[in-house]
């Protein structure tokens, strides 16, 4: 980088000039007078190494992108096969229909499968890759509830 310093002496530039209307004025004659100009230009010495400026590659201490977590959705099977389910009991909470509703069960708007009657929960295969959930009325449960 070059650093240029220029000094200009204004007092010396106007020495000998007058603004009088006479024809003897040096300014009207076009005489400049004695203008002193001093110019000093200095260049820095070349360094043996090229000048490079690097930025930080990492954030400063104390900042992190971690530190948050979301709650679990509590999905999955709530009442397993051969267990007793009462009316309105949630059997499976799911996103989408991984399990399809069978007999005596209902399907909620969020695909929750729930029992419609008292009975035993049964999981069955439905087609080549689907599963069906049903609630079967159990005779022994009827006898116990009636007695």
From TrEMBL:
Main location: plastid
Residue ranges that the Swiss-Prot or TrEMBL entry lists as coiled coil: none
GO cellular component: chloroplast; ribonucleoprotein complex; ribosome
Location within or outside the cell: Plastid, Chloroplast
Residues of the signal peptide: none
A single GO molecular function term of this UniProt record: structural constituent of ribosome
This protein's record includes keyword Cytoplasm: no
InterPro entries found in the cross-reference section: Ribosomal_bL27, Ribosomal_bL27_CS
Swiss-Prot/TrEMBL keywords: Chloroplast, Plastid, Ribonucleoprotein, Ribosomal protein, Transit peptide
Gene Ontology BP, a term: translation
Source taxon at top rank: Eukaryota
Stated family: Belongs to the bacterial ribosomal protein bL27 family.
Name the UniProt record assigns to this protein: Large ribosomal subunit protein bL27c
Originating organism: Gossypium raimondii (Peruvian cotton)
Organism lineage: Eukaryota, Viridiplantae, Streptophyta, Embryophyta, Tracheophyta
